[in-house]
Amino acid sequence: MTGLDEHGRPLPPFAGGEPETIVGFLEYQRATFAWKCSGLDAAGLRVTVGVSTMTLGGMLKHVAFYEDHWFSYCLRGNERQPIWNDDHFDADPDWEWNSAADDSPDELYALWQNAVARSRDLLAEALADGGLDRPADRPRRNGTRPNARWIAMHMIEEYARHNGHADLLRESIDGLVGE
After folding, report:
1. How many domains does the chain have?
2. Does 37 reside within a domain?
3. What distance in Å separates the CA atoms of residue 168 and residue 51, rounded to the nearest whole number?
4. How far apart are alpha carbons 80 and 149 in whole angstroms?
5. Mean pLDDT of the 7-20 span
6. How many CB atoms lie within 10 A of CB 58?
7. pTM above 0.85, yes or no
8. Which residues neighbour 97 within 8 Å (Cβ) at sequence distance 6 or greater?
9. Which of 1, 121, 109 has its CA nearest to residue 61?
10. How far apart are CA 124 and CA 122, in angstroms?
11. Which domain holds residue 74?
12. Domain assignment of residue 45, yes or no
C-alpha cells in the first residue's frame, strides 16, 4: 500500500506487481464500503431509497456472506460459517438482505468485519500456496474451479457495485458524499 487517503482508505500501489495491485484494490473497495457504512445506528442501516428495498444493513450482511462464500467456502474448501449453514436461504433466497433488519448494528458490523478478517488471512494463505493461479479447493456447481485471481477480482467487482449503491443510500441518510 502507498499510504492512506483523506478518508483513511489504503491506496493501492501505483506500480506494484499483480498480486499487490489486486489485493490493494480489494482493500481499497473494502475500506470504501466501511466508510459508507460507518457510524450508523439501526435506523440508518435500515434506510431505503425510492422503491428499492436495499439497505446498508442488508448490504453488510450480503457482503459478509460473499466474503465467506468465495474465500473460505470456495477458495479454501472450508465448511460454511454456522450463520450461513441454516436453511434460511431455502425459505427466503434474499435472507441475508431481509434478515439484517432484525440484527443490531453491532452484530452487522462484527459479522462483516470478521468475514473480512478471515478472508484476508485465507487469501494470503492461498497466495503463498500457488499465487493468483491457485485453483479453488471447492468446484462450483458446474464443476469449474475459479482461481484466486478470479475470486479476488470478483470481490472487487462486488464491492465496487455495492459501493455505488452505498453512495446513494448514505447520501439520503445524512448527506455524506464522496467517491
Report:
1. 1
2. yes
3. 13
4. 21
5. 96
6. 23
7. yes
8. 53, 54, 55, 58, 59, 61, 62
9. 109
10. 5
11. 18-174
12. yes
